[in-house]
Amino acid sequence: MTGTALSPKDAAQKAQQARAIRECLDRYIPEGQPVALLQFPFDFNVGNHMMWVAAMDYLKQRNAPIAYTAHGHNLDLQQMIRAVGDGTILFSGGVTVSRLWPRHAEVKRIVAEACPRNRLVSLPSTMLFVDDEDRREASTLFGNHRNAVLLARDPVSAESARNVFPGNVHVETVHDSALLLPPQPRHAAPDHDVIWLARDDIEGVGSLAPSDVEVFDWTHYDSAGMRILFPGRFFSRVRKLAPTLRSIVNRQIAGSYDRFARYVLASGNRRLDTGKVLVTDRMHPHILCALRSQHSVLLPDRFGKNRAVYEYTGRNYSTVHWADTYEEALEIARTVARSTPV
């Protein structure tokens, strides 16, 4: 069973956004030249893997070989420098420049210091800062690096970044890279009218979801998925012990990461299959729903990320709805579910 195709209006909107993302990335990632792709999401957050799969697909289409890839804790600077040469270094998107998720910021800092002549590109992200101390710390992230590019996935983030980072750091606004993914199919009939994806981390505001709907998050450990990652973990050790084999080994690592990311994305699609309408306070589920032509109701997060992305990217999709409160979200979701065929 497959879901309804995107409406002509939604398909045109998606195509325009994807085209804008590709044109932006093309300006900073030379065709056919090697790149390093850092900060692989060693987790089960489907949104992180949506961005990773989109980046992998784009780089393949761009004929840009991935000379080196790593997650936050198996990065070897010297091996990366030897592998990528004067190529571009990419950082995966997300919330990656503040102390909310500090390892992302730390990796950017050490790479910027070690690679002053490489172009650094932070893929589309939200620029969140907790307080003035966080802003001061972030402002030094790239030091005096003369070729650092921050891609902000909404104008609010872009303005925030320009207010924090010095003039040597270039900031540009473009939609979240997950919009590069193709439309995603539904494979099963829903079990519920309304499902509720509630985040339970620092960006959430606390779940007040009603007891009579299916409530879940999409970040939980999956032993089958970890087995897919085993080759990547094994070859990461080989890369340390046999640096002369780095080209062969890195292909194995990149392949393992790619298979895992696609597995996690597929698991997210299966989870969304269980409902007609999704309510969520996570940002990426509403993008995945838009790609599936599935109705979603997006709620605020703690820091304003969801509203900013909704205004810039999501609001013109016919299947995307905004709610300020949990009560409003449930009312919208139930109303839409009653009138939505599957």
Automatic annotation (TrEMBL):
Q: Which molecular-function annotation in GO is an example for this chain?
A: transferase activity
Q: What is this protein called?
A: Pyruvyl transferase EpsO
Alphabetically list the UniProt keywords: Transferase
Listed InterPro entries: Polysacch_pyruvyl_Trfase
What EC identifiers does the entry list?
Answer: 2.-.-.-
What general EC class does the enzyme of this chain belong to? transferase
Q: Which organism is it from?
A: Rhizobium esperanzae
- Which Pfam family, any one of them, does this sequence belong to? PS_pyruv_trans
Polysaccharide pyruvyl transferase domain location: 45-290
